[in-house]
């Protein structure tokens, strides 16, 4: 048995994570130790229920249910989707998908985005708080689905995110007869005109399709740019997004979304989406309460791999993502982890094969066929896999000037702790520079990043479990 953990209630528990999480819960085995309670422990919170229950003397199954708290909660008066005047077919799909209440960003944006005349928006909210459904619900409500012209265009930075967005549109639009198409490499027929209500694409391929006359945007009503701070960055995809915008009418409603909007991008974004309503957050509001941030101090860069192996020996924790800086490093670590007996997937942009290889990797990970995914920043943004309960920053994210990249840190750790779940992020530091960079992260976002010792396997395991437990105990 592992070392007991003292909960905030003063009692002692043995806690281990249960990897068999379902879509709605992160579960763990909790065994009360001192003394075994006669009745179940049941803790009601103001915004949901966190329960540890079971019979005395038996291992107990505790779980954090999908519940709205913190960033995902609506405002004081909790609105319902029924109040937004949505089509009946959409309400049916929301009910089927178990979307019972809108999250805060959904409650704030959907009603105003549905008003006439349509307003542009720059919308920011923490990772995993339901921005995708916010724009998909708006789009499905606004479009005339009896007309087969392309009325909605969604641009995303990667094929994985574009595929995920189409899944959300098809899920929410399943009773509405909505047709979607991709404008991503190898996912459309060259020379054939697009005839879908909504096209979801990456900027380069979308622009290509518009220029070839395959994609007609004359009837466009709504343009959504997901991960907009990244997409409008002139060092990246900004130029292509500007060109796409120059082909559309000026009364098209433009929605820009992201969890991060650095100041330098906000001004440009406001020019891209003129007169937009702006919902932004301060640095210290950006972190998600359910994500416990930690770090491990490695003696040097070479020692990091040993620490990683040690970490995976003591924790079997649902699914996890390991972020590294370089593609060759991702492959190298994957090979070594495989030799250690782990089932590993690797995804980076050099993995092409017309996209099929990338699609298989992410599909295997999503379905739980693989539990550990090693990747680069290509998957730092947007990807929503609810079973991910740990993110490892094997290397800290750097910008092109070799400074710590705050937005990417936030997006990476945001692959866990989604929509009210709890998760852990562990960043590796290996010298004074990386340690100072992590302290800058802590200061920038106003969060505590606690140290997990690397020497003693049992102690590190215990401390991580202890921290997770306290996040759990503090919920609500
Ligand atoms: N109202 C709701 N009720 C229940 N679940 C929801 C609701 N809205 C969204 N979700 C779920 O929350 C999860 C996170 O949503 P989503 O991926 O849209 O977050 P996001 O804010 O776009 O995150 P990121 O900034 O990382 O891109 C998804 O699994 C989605 O199905």
Report on the structure:
- The chain is of the alpha/beta class and 476 residues long.
- It folds into three domains: 64 residues, no CATH class; 206 residues, P-loop containing nucleotide triphosphate hydrolases (Rossmann fold); 187 residues, P-loop containing nucleotide triphosphate hydrolases (Rossmann fold).
- The chain is built from 14 helices and 20 strands.
- The strands form three sheets. The protein has a seven-stranded parallel sheet with strand order 9-10-8-11-12-7-13, sandwiched between helices. Strands 16-17-15-18-19-14-20 form a seven-stranded parallel sheet, sandwiched between helices. Strands 1-2-3-6-5-4 form a six-stranded antiparallel sheet, covered by helices on one side.
- The longest helix is centred in the C-terminal third of the chain and has 18 residues.
- The two termini are 30 Å apart.
- About 11% of the residues have low confidence.
- Bound molecules: adenosine-5'-triphosphate.
- The site of adenosine-5'-triphosphate has 19 residues, from α3.
- Adenosine-5'-triphosphate (ATP) binds next to α3.
- Its EC number is 3.6.4.13.
């Amino acid at each position: 048995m592992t070392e007991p953990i003292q909960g905030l209630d003063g009692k002692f528990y043995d806690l281990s994570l249960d990897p068999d999480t379902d879509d709605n819960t992160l579960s763990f085995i909790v065994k009360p130790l001192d003394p075994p309670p006669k009745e179940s422990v049941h803790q009601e919170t103001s915004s949901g229920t966190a329960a540890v229950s079971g019979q005395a003397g038996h291992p107990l199954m505790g779980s954090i249910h999908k519940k709205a708290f913190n960033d995902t909660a609506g405002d004081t008066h909790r609105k319902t989707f029924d109040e937004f005047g949505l089509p009946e077919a959409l309400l049916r799909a929301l009910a089927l998908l178990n979307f019972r209440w809108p999250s805060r960003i959904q409650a704030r944006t959907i009603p105003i985005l549905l008003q006439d005349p349509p307003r542009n928006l720059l919308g920011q909210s923490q990772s995993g708080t339901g921005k995708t459904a916010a724009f998909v619900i708006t789009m499905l409500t606004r479009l005339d689905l009896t007309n087969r012209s392309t009325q909605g265009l969604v641009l995303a930075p990667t094929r994985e995110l574009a595929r995920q967005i189409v899944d959300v549109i098809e899920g929410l639009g399943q009773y509405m007869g909505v047709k979607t198409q991709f404008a991503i490499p190898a996912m459309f027929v060259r020379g054939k005109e697009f005839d879908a209500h909504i096209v979801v694409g990456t900027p380069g391929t979308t622009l290509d399709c518009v220029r070839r006359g395959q994609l007609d945007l004359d009837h466009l009503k709504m343009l959504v740019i997901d991960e907009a701070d990244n997409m409008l960055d002139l060092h990246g995809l900004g130029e292509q997004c500007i060109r796409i915008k120059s082909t559309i009418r000026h009364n098209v409603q433009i929605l820009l979304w992201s969890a991060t909007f650095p100041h330098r991008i906000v001004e440009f974004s406001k020019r891209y989406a003129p007169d937009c309503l702006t919902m932004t957050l301060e640095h210290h509001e950006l972190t998600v309460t359910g994500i416990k941030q930690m770090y491990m101090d490695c003696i040097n860069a070479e020692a990091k791999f040993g620490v990683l192996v040690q970490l995976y020996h003591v924790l079997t924790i649902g699914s996890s993502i390991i972020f590294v800086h370089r593609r060759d490093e991702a492959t190298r670590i994957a090979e070594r982890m495989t030799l250690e007996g782990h089932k590993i997937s690797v995804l980076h942009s050099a993995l092409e094969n017309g996209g099929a290889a990338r699609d298989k990797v992410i599909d295997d990970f999503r379905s739980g066929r693989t539990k550990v995914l090693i990747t680069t920043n290509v998957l730092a943004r947007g990807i929503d896999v609810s079973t991910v309960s740990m993110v490892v920053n094997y290397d800290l994210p750097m910008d092109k000037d070799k400074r710590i990249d705050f937005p990417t840190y936030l997006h990476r750790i945001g692959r866990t702790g989604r929509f009210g779940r709890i998760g852990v992020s562990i960043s590796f530091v290996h010298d004074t520079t990386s340690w100072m960079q992590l302290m800058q992260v802590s200061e920038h976002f106003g969060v505590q990043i606690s140290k997990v010792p690397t020497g003693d396997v049992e102690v590190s395991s215990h401390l991580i479990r202890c921290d997770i437990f306290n996040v759990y105990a503090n919920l609500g």
